[in-house]
Amino acid sequence: MSNPMPRRQFLSQTAASAAALLASRALGAPEAEPVTARSYLAAHLYTRAEVDDWLAGRAFPFAKYSSDYGWLLRSAKFQDGMDDSICVYTYGTSDERITINYRDRPCRINTYGNSFTQCHQVSDGETWQEALAAHLHEPVRNFGVGGWSVYQAYLRMMQEEKRHPADYIIFNIYEDDHFRNLDAWRNLRAKKHIQFIEPTLPHVRVNARDGRFEECPNPCPTPESVYHLCDLDWVCAHFEEDFALQILLAHLNAKMENPDRRYAGILALATTHGIVTREQTAANLSATADELHRRSAYFASERIVEKIEAFAAQTGKRVLYVVSYSPSFIARHAAEGVRPDQSFIDFMRAKKLPLVDLLAGHAAELAHYSGDIKDYLKHYFVGHYNPRGNLFTALALKDALVAMLEPKPPAYRADPDVTRWK
């Protein structure tokens, strides 16, 4: 199936691109009207026909509604693989991506996370879970879902470990997952797209200064309630004061000439969260919004990791964390040494949690690479990881996982029936 814009590319569009779009509508005007919460939300409503088609499975083939998580994935074929190839995505009875290698054996490794866990843009047998399973000689389950936050992955882990428990968990976190924690509705940060609906989702509200962490359920907890996304009054009542929307509005209105009109919303948030003063906010509205967003997002992920570790301690499970990154993040880090998530990495290291840092893995390879960074990244990425990138992931985390596993996987276990070549 042809896709006019891959979902990963769409989700990566930033507030800056939205600002440019909206600003273009006001060219020539001496002072444009500010983008209000209501005007922004009005542009993102769904029609009843769109909701009908999505719930019935007639349109928007990427995902299906889930009351618990916002959405889960549907079996599909998309022409979004390397060399413009068709990728096959197949999901089992528990909405997991199907297990192929050693599926007839007991499974003691479950994986959770985002599209880099789901392994978007490769076919079923090309995922890093399948590469890892083939090497270890034991199955690895894949509960990843594209577009999910750290919080959604945590919620799924809590449910799946009751239904399909495993002694070992690989928990994957992508660079944007921290920010997704704070999204009550992904369309508060992203435009509508013709290929999929972005439903509401469970999320968290935080205040890093006060140490506040509040878990919030899906605002649309039934299929019938999804129709609320067609109702402007309902949407405004529920999202007009939303944290993520106020961050976006700060970017969209950053160039307004009248300071009171352009930063009133973000000022209230910045002062409540102890970021900056009114004068500092007025001087650099976008920078203030970015700092507030980052601080809140990483604080949220840190609290979720603490909840994961508490669950693991209670149940006797071991967790291996893996952090993943986009090609643009890797390229910027290689060129400038910039790492916006350094505070989160420092938190993980301070807690002495098992962590596989794929950014560091790429940096180590690039230290011995003399070609152009774009050529290097093409070896591994087609938006998401291609099959070679998935193998890179499997090999990057293999040593840390094998060190954890007891007993050792069959590939690393003494076997008297195996011939050893010398």
TrEMBL record:
Molecular function GO terms recorded: hydrolase activity, acting on ester bonds
Keyword set includes Transcription: no
Keywords: Signal
Origin species: Horticoccus luteus
UniProt keyword Signal present: yes
Bilayer-crossing regions: none
Protein name: SGNH/GDSL hydrolase family protein
Top-level taxon of origin: Bacteria
Gene3D superfamilies: SGNH hydrolase
SUPFAM superfamilies found in the cross-reference section: SGNH hydrolase
Range of residues in the leader sequence: 1-28
